[in-house]
Amino acid sequence: MKLTPATTKTLKNGVKIPILGLGVYKAPKEETESIVYTALKQGYRHIDSAQFYGNEREVGLAIAKYLKDEPGSSRNDVFYTTKLAPTNATYEQAKSAILESLEKVKEIGYIDLCLIHSPALEKTQRLDMWKALQEFYEEGRIKAIGVSNYSVLLLKELLGWEGLKVEPSVNQFELNPWLLRLDLCEFCNEKGIVIEAFSPLTRGKRLDDPELLRLIEKSYPGKTTAQILIRWSLQMGFIPLPKSSNEQRLLANLQSLDFEISDEDMKQLTHENDYYVSNPAFDPIKKYFDKW
After folding, report:
1. pLDDT tens-place string over residues 92-140
2. In this structure, what CATH number is given to the domain that contains residue 255?
3. pLDDT of 281
4. What stretches of 236-262 show up as alpha helix (H) in DSSP?
5. Is 197 helix (H, G, I), strand (E, B) or coil?
6. Known binding residues
7. How far apart are CA 184 and CA 166, in angstroms?
8. Distance of CA 277 to CAs 13, 210, 220, 283, Å?
9. Is 53 an annotated catalytic residue?
10. Residue 55: pLDDT over 70
11. Beta bridge partners of residue 99, listed in sequence order
């Protein structure tokens, strides 16, 4: 099947999510609206923000502007994700924070997907945050809910909670050819939890990797290492969320949909025994593995 920016996966509740997203972490606040608007004009249909990023308002304005300017477009054409900051760790704090996020994007009416950005330290906090998300989901103001940086143990905790009414649809965590997290991916697939890959470009740290460069020279002339990494994620069944503020690179990243990596090359690219985290200081899954 030919892939396009509008190609979707179906979440367990029936919501359609585009297979490639644009991450806006560290996008300058004063430039975010322009970056997102440009990306939407290029064909992106999935934007990934967060309370922690401080640019939800700008993303919402860009989506609203695009929908107004683009003939024949509707709200269903753009998928918007935000994330609940783990500092909002009580039920009331979480409810208040979600209301603020909804207010910041009031021009687009609702949030397609809201994730817990990173697990709070205490079980009661994690479950209180989920309780709040469930309520907004049941009201229809959020169309799907999920988690980010959750380990297998934390997913089991949530799925086994007696107060669970809505199962998580998504788990977002860092993945790349040198960071596979096989057990976590296998568990998510078994439970029907769609996997999103943040930092699929290794924060740029391995874009000059000699193996990638040799592979391009041998089999994919004209492609970039970023396109190879994004395509790898897509063929692994993940939803990659590359980020860029450069118009040319935004378009180039979309072109990862235009080719396929052979089975042989996928095998060569996939390093099951490595554990390469692009920012070791931020790896909640490993940091709290023994505790959780």
Report:
1. 999 999 999 999 999 999 999 999 999 999 999 999 999 999 999 999 9
2. 3.20.20.100
3. 73
4. 247-254
5. strand
6. 117
7. 20
8. 31, 18, 26, 7
9. yes
10. yes
11. none
Rounded Cα distance between 189 and 5, Å, is: 23
The total of structural domains in the chain comes to 1
5 domain-assigned: no
Radius of gyration of the chain (CA): 18
Read off the DSSP letter of residue 166.
Answer: S
The boundaries of the domain holding residue 115 are: 15-287
Residue 292 lies in a domain: no
Bind-site residues for substrate: 117
Query: Which two structure tokens, joined as six digits, stand for 252?
Result: 């180039």
Residue 26, pLDDT > 80, answer: yes
Establish if 3 belongs to a structural domain.
Answer: no
Which is catalytic among the residues 44, 53, 80, 220? Answer: 53
Q: Looking at the predicted structure, is the pLDDT value of residue 192 above 90? A: yes
* Residue 113 C-beta-side C-alpha neighbours within 13 Å: 30
Which tokens hold the place of 244?
């860029």
Q: Which of 9, 11, 36, 10 is nearest to 25 (CA)?
A: 36
Residue 241: which of 79, 129, 109, 1 has the closest Cα? Answer: 79
Buried b (16+ CB within 10 A) or exposed e, 126-159: bbbbbbbbbbbbeeebbbbbbbbbbbbebbebbe
Mean pLDDT of the chain: 95
pLDDT for residue 290 is more than 50? no
Whether 1 is in a domain gets the answer: no
β strands within 56-108, DSSP E: 79-84
